[in-house]
Amino acid sequence: MENLTMEKIVNLCKQYGFVFPGSEIYDGFANTWDFGPVGNELKKNIKNAWWKRFVQEDMNTYGVDASILMNPKVWEASGHVASFSDPKMDCKKCKQRFRADNLIEEFDSTVAAEGMTNEEMEKFIDDNNIKCPNCGSKDWSEIKQFKLMFETSRGTVEGNKDSVYLRPETCQGEYVNFLNVQRTARAKIPFAIAQIGKSFRNEITPGNFLFRTIEFEQMELQKFCKEDDSFNIYEDYKKRALEFVKDLGLDADKLRYHDHDKLAHYAKAACDIQYKFPIGWEELNGIHHRGTWDLSRHSEFSGKSMEYLDPETNEKYIPNVIEYSIGADRLTLAILCNSYEEETLENDTREVMHFHPAIAPYKVAILPLVKKYHTDKAKEVFNMLSKYFMCTYDETGSIGKRYRREDVIGTPYCITIDDETLNNNTVTIRDRDTMNQITLSLDDVKDYIEDKIRF
Fold it and tell me: Which parts of 353-427 fold into alpha helices (H)?
């Protein structure tokens, strides 16, 4: 939908049970969100679709579920303890907080602010009279480094506790389990380790609904491979990642590749797939060629060899890593934005979510035409079909109003139970997108729906 605003999506999500503000009865907690009954199903289905495509259908990918709390040395090896922080500065006039490096690079895209000291960034901002994007003032505070990892402690005796961290990314769980997975799965290079899990970042200025939050869920995999094959695998995942989000229903004209000009010190290549959100073009997911850096660092810090022994050549080497990562929350937001439509009909206007049937929260709504006469049969049908896929039941209001309620939460099919069902064992099935209706034997409904919701 053109001219869709983030405010519109936020309000719609709250009204219809997709997403609620976190801790709302206590006036909320900044940039935390709770997925409601409808949104929980949507996000779960998105994760299941990703897992099916990249793990279930790939014989060389293996799933793990690594612990959120890890040995602190993991984060020393990854570099997070020493350098995972943002250079923040405050506008003294409007009190808004900004990343200094972003201010500099938005002012001059040729400048690599990442390698600058706080003093160098402050001098650049002062020399170039960079203004506050919010109020236009040039009255800035000093730059301070804000740690992005949430730190807590482990131990039972006060004064004798060890610092531990909530993981800021899930990929380290794949790296530290490289040897375990390779051994137990008898995996041969190239193979991948995949995971879906929570991560946490102490973002000072998160925002824009689900786009950037302090607690988020990642779907990602690490492909371990020989250096000679690595760039072909990198390009392959770029294509597969784009194909996946298109298959979920995102419009091709709202997707684009964004190759990185500036790379992390260990990276050989990096690319984002961007989506045109209501806030503009922003990163949806990333594909990165990480070289041998991750496994080499963990080998160094743990004292355990992370070398792979090629069973055919007897060659030993540290594998290269190709990473593909996409945020489940951010992808859910993109799908919400892309699917929403206010459709003008002949005598009415309807709100509708055009979700791919495979990820729709409910596949079928069971609607008794007349509550007094058709409820018992409708509940029987619900109990029969809910064994196979998510169904919802609605007996309140006119059939037209119930159709509209199902349209706005994206239910692809509505089954109406009426006298024909009682007498002839047939039901009326309405299609969400076309609003066309067909009559079908109740015995054929399960197979009909399962065929439609396949991904």
Answer: 371-385, 399-408, 419-424
Q: Are residues 172 and 306 in the same domain?
A: yes
Do both 61 and 180 map to the same domain? yes
Cα separation of 435 and 361, whole Å?
19
Residue 349: inside a domain, yes or no?
no
- Copy the structure tokens of residue 452: 């439609």
Determine the pLDDT at residue 191.
98
Pairing type for strands 391-393 and 364-368 reads parallel
Q: What is the structure's pLDDT at 159? A: 62
Whether residues 154 and 141 share a domain: the answer is no
Inside any domain, residue 352: no
Query: Is residue 129 a part of any domain in this protein?
Result: yes
Q: Which residues pair with 117 in a beta bridge?
A: none
Could you identify the residue written with the tokens 């505070």? 141
Q: Among candidates 263, 316, 314, 261, which has minimal Cα distance to 291? A: 263
What does pTM read for this prediction?
0.91
| Under-70 pLDDT residues of the chain | 156-161, 205-206
**Do 277 and 296 contact (CB within 8 A), yes or no?**
no
The pLDDT of residue 111:
84
Question: Residue 345, SS3?
Answer: coil
Tell me, yes or no, whether 159 and 248 share the same domain. Answer: yes
Show which of 126, 147, 168 is a domain's final residue. Answer: 147
Task: Read off the pLDDT of residues 41-63 as tens digits, 9 standing for 90 and up.
Answer: 999 999 999 999 999 999 999 99
